[in-house]
Amino acid sequence: MALDEYQKRDFKIIGTRQPRPDGIDKVTGRALYGADITAPGMLYAAMLRAPHAHANIKSIDTSRAEAMSEVKAVVTAADFVQGLGDDTQDVIDACIARDKVLYDGHGVVAIAATSRAAARRALKLIQVEYEVLPHAVEIDDALAAGAPVIQAGRRGNKVPKGYNDNCTNWCEFGHGDLDAGFAKADKIISRSFRTAATHQGYIEPHACLASMGPDGQGDLWCCTQGQYFVRTLCAEIIGMEESRLRVTSSEIGGGFGGKTTVFIEPIALMLSKKAGRPVKMTMSRDEVFKATGPTVSSVTDVRIGMTRDGRITAGEAFLRYQGGAFPCLTIFPGAQSAFAVYDLSAVRTRAVNVMTNRPRQAAYRAPGAPMAIYAVESVVDELCQEFGLDPLEVRLLNAASKGTKSSYGPTFDDIGLLATLKAAKAHPHYTAPLGPNQGRGLSCGFWFNFGGNTSVSLNVNFDGTIGVTEGNPDIGGSRVSISMMAAEELGVPYDKVRTIVADTNSLGHNDVTDGSRVTFAVGLATIKAARAAIGEMCRRAARVWDIDEDAVIWEDGHAKPAGPNAGSHQPMSLAEIARQSPNTGGPISGHHEVNAEGAGVSFGVHLCDLEVDPETGFTTILRYTVFQDAGRAIHPDFVEGQMQGGAAQGIGWALNEEYIYGKDGRLQNAGFLDYRIPVASDLPKIDTVILEIPNPGHPYGVRGVGETSIVPPLAAISNAVSRTIGVRMQELPMSPPKILAAIKSAGN
Amino acid sequence: MQYAAPTTTEEAARLLASNPKAARVLAGGTDLLVQIRAGMIAPDLLVDIKKINGIRDITAEGGGYRIGAAVSGAELGEHAGVVAMWPGVVEAVELIGSTQVQGRCTMAGNLCNASPAADSVPALVAADAVARIVGPRGERNVAVLDIPRGVGKTSLEAGEFITSIYLPKRPDRASDAYLRFIPRTEMDIAVCSAGVSLTLDSKGIITEARVALGAVAPTVLLVSEAAKALIGHKPDDATLAALGKACSDACKPIDDKRGTIEFRRDVVAVLAGRAARIACQRAGGSL
Amino acid sequence: MSKIHVTTRINGDEAEFLCDAEETLLDVLRDHLNLTGAKEGCASGDCGACSVTLNGRLVCSCLVLGAEADGAEIATIEGMASGEKLHVLQQKFLDHAALQCGICTPGILIAAKSLLEKNPDPSETEVRYWLAGNLCRCTGYDKIINAVIDAAAEMRKV
Fold first, then answer.
1. In this predicted complex, what is the ipTM?
2. Cβ–Cβ of C37/A29 closer than 8 Å?
3. Quick one: fold of B174-282?
4. Residue A311 CB neighbours (<10 A)
5. Residue among A616, A673, A681 whose CB faces B185 most closely
6. Is the pLDDT of residue A443 over 60?
């Protein structure tokens, strides 16, 4: 790992709150999102979706639809080549059903027509004959002996005996002697926890505009977290070379992991290819819920031993996740993160993924971690109650710190968990009085963070302004942060820098905007691109001064002679060097390409006070505080925004959000009315405390901040509810009927 | 689909009667347009009644108020007279949807959509409100209680539509209240609900009462046993316990995605009791 | 199929369009008039991203038919700033970083403006309930509420 990047320094721009370059467009309605552009001759696409959880497709008759003059193209799975790599094949199979419908809402036929209304009318003329099959949408049902096999031939080769053919993936992590550890405990608690599948709930439905020409070149505009990834997938699925497909990312109306794959883009490209015209494809909200990628649902058994003075002696967990009708790797981060906040001498996690008749899951903010850590943090809280110990003290006693061998293998470097715990302990929230029917809960959270492939180009314009070109869609203020890092490094005012997001053919590859990687990795590449430009500017100054280039240094936005021996020259500003650059060797730029390592892990602690109405089970969140280590907060507003946004999503997950299936295996709440994300009146102020424990792997100490914040709310709220009503809650969401039932069970 | 915006009730009735199976009334549209977009219904004709003369008016009549069928929730909530006389009805209407939906939704539409969970309906039934209906055979007045006939079904006949809802005069020392349970604080459909309208004597004893429950049966329930539990008493704990039991006993709820039978039975009793207390307080009684 | 001819006024300017009966005001704004500031998040009145005002009343444009706009006054996000000058709310949303992805922002700004016209000094609770029909998934609402309250204070000074 690259852990020698960080250098302590005083910042001028980092840590201030600068205006974002996309701000005006976003408050005036000018910003262009996925569904906001049109093209001449554009057609509108619509998709016929199956009304069954699991069914064989016996026949498809599109003749009546094709007879409509307004219909210009019809696409089914038969239009796509088969035999792609497993992952890519799964992507297209999840978009459009091959021979078998795998979930309610699975695409079957796509149409492109001259108007939305005509496309909708055409769908009604398509006849599909189904043979309905037995289905399984719940983990227990899919794991049961005799369960319907969702997809044959997908059983994982690492899955142990005793598990059926729906089990696709298996993993194990840990170290130490569990038996010896549990033997040292004064109390061992074993519990089983369940979490429902939740959706990222981005407000912008997926939308794209695809244009394929007869020369085999294509253009695709879409809302995505990663235009390069879209290009790679679509090019393989359509059967074209990557260079022939240009993908441009629109402004993106939220993603949270849900826009890290494709659901409509290859379909729109194929429709456009067949019609020879541009095709716009947008999803309705119910299509988003039914046919995109919610997160996994989970069942997690946890067993933890503790001594009466609060030392955790051993911990183990067994995770069962379902991520829809396809193999799924989310068990890995789940099993790795379950115990990551603790320094344990004996720990083991095992996990299995099971296929169900649900849509193929996509990443959702710290994928796999919230449900695993919820289970562990619930049992730790119960052990604290058992011994009458302060839950924050117990976390301090057991917290992972520098040098801890983590539960998933690596040894931690500088990490911020102890600092966040101490900040929480010192905060007035922790000791504020509580009223009747009120309780306080806390939980730690963890996320790995990620670096990855990154390209940045930085241009010094002749007028002394700076253009930064990066390749990651800006979801929550990354352009401003990247501009700030460029300005800091170059020593120019912030307003001299403008950062834009490139299309796939304007810049080298960039991995998807995920893993909280952008401010870390793109920031790192930007700083290094700026350093490259600085090197060139020093060379130009050396040329003007006719001195050795090693004799020029860069300070405060100026090239200066390194010392008296270099001669007496007036410092040259960046603007002067830029102005003279046509005569000193031409345009000046810097670029940097890297597969970034050293993304420092991230920890957070959440405190939650709430009140439960004992007669209705309604929960009111009264007070909420987020403590998180940001390494270095480049733009504190947007760091706070990530902390608050993740907390709000976690609150929704804990209390009311869930995928609800009927006995027929069909989704019953495919809309914002009954998929209940928090509204403004549901939430209190969400206070934030940013800790800054520099990440050794970044020049400024940056750690990703985007994901950790969704991890702690699940247990923080569950612990608060459990303490308030005197019953240990073991299932999310804790909707009012469940809480009221728990209260009544305790009364009996 | 065709769109028509007649300016008289006669023309509206004629249009509706001309195509009774495939014509729909458009008032606020907050249910209708959602159902059309979702493909649940496919009407051939929408008859927009908002341009009919007087249909957006609130008028004092016989000591009470006549609320035009196209009066939006927001407009109703801005009418000081109705708010003072029937605060429970107004708070029920104001619970329909968001601020945006309030700008469009109507009581008449809420009633004719015939959802068991309609917020305004229990309050209107508790208020003993009367709907005025116009149709091919002229005008008739029907108690709001008698409009819903099942989930999505009303007693309106082909070509008929509601032109106004009448909220009667109320005696001194009388008031009403409406409460619903939802899992969030806003933007949800009632899991169960209760409307209570009552009158007190000078000592604060309840002399008259109507208790109506929502989302605990296919249609709104007017629970006479619940009213009996209140009449002759102050809203003390024993009275409210009896009220709650009457409500729990009367309801016939289902398990669905929004709640369980047990939860609805328990919580509707809690809501009725809390609403009764609020109504008493508003009527000038002490708690 | 015969279209409906509609004459209306949008952000003070006269506008004319032809629409089908089933097209909503949101469809018309976005597809016919190229006013894409109002967003479709749900098409069922549950998210508020399509908020506009119709004759001064805050509505979801997805729950209004295009045909109903005939003779009406409509205000959309595109008309909120005057020339180069942002509305106070727009400026405060930038100052407070009250947006991340920004997809909900036009609807929230329209809704907040409508609130402050009715109630120039709302409490935090009043702001939260007024905006309950405008879903935001990025921010947790905190900075949005701060921005609205700060804008209200600034507007009261004028």
1. 0.98
2. yes
3. Enolase-like; domain 1 (3.30.390)
4. 16
5. A681
6. yes
